[in-house]
Please model this.
Amino acid sequence: MEKVYNTMCERLHEKAYKLTPQRETILQAFVEQGKGHLSAEDVYNLVKAKNPDIGLATVYRTLDLLAEIEILQKMDFGDGRSRYEMSGSEEHHHHHLICLNCHKVAEFDDDLLETLEAVIARKSNFKIIDHDLKFYGLCKECQAQIEK
Amino acid sequence: MEKVYNTMCERLHEKAYKLTPQRETILQAFVEQGKGHLSAEDVYNLVKAKNPDIGLATVYRTLDLLAEIEILQKMDFGDGRSRYEMSGSEEHHHHHLICLNCHKVAEFDDDLLETLEAVIARKSNFKIIDHDLKFYGLCKECQAQIEK
DNA sequence: CATTAATTGACAGGGAGTTTCTGTTAGTCG
DNA sequence: CGACTAACAGAAACTCCCTGTCAATTAATG
Model:
């Protein structure tokens, strides 16, 4: 049995949200898909295969809801649509490397940013709650391809 | 005479783009407004005061064009609309502190990120071209307000 | 089970841009 | 100084991602 599923049930219950088949199906899509940054439309398509009656609005609403209870993490790669991924079990911040050519997204971990955060907080009187770091460039494949 | 104005003229000329009154007016809006991150609509409103006949599509097109020739810098604070600011004269990277409460945007400079970039490039075989770092949190005023 | 508030699906609506089209104009050349 | 032409402008329709509305349905609790 998947751990996320139980976590979702608990968190839904805490907030008096209901456990519906649609929500299960959508979570399942993320579990099966594993890693990857799915757009609402991606999810819609995956989910339609199992349940053709599901509505697009429900997908959007569910994604927002799952992000709210921190089962998913909502993110923005600047391509005009939101993307979602399963938020890692722990507070394990990672960031993205976005290929400007093929739009593939890779990930990397960070710890270095904590220091920077402290410095900035002090200098600017800003209370930092979250950060978002993205690198844009060319992945290995595209570098090779472009050099040709 | 403003230096940016001349720069714009040169760069337009280089690419065989024309210098139109609309483009002048839009640049002027940024010059007068000084610092600040203007949305297309902000610009549209500022510009309408001087030239009520200007079209919204022209504003969008011009902003993209000015970003292309690097007079402006286009950025995305995740609020669903693009914002633009005059790109500093030099390659002076700065990043943003976004208040989650009042949505004010402050800035800070960075140098620390270069190191991180090098590390990541090596580890991931990714050729990094640009980066984007944002901090979300509470500005001084909102911290005070919320604690009350 | 009965109740009821949350949820769903369908579809209209909204915001931010973008495309298309036709008429206008800036820049160049003679 | 014109005349020519590619770039440009404005208007309006259109696209893309969602978001709101509403009647019908359903999960959870008593």
Observations:
- Chain B is about 45% helix and 25% strand.
- Residues 21-33 of chain B form the longest helix (13 residues).
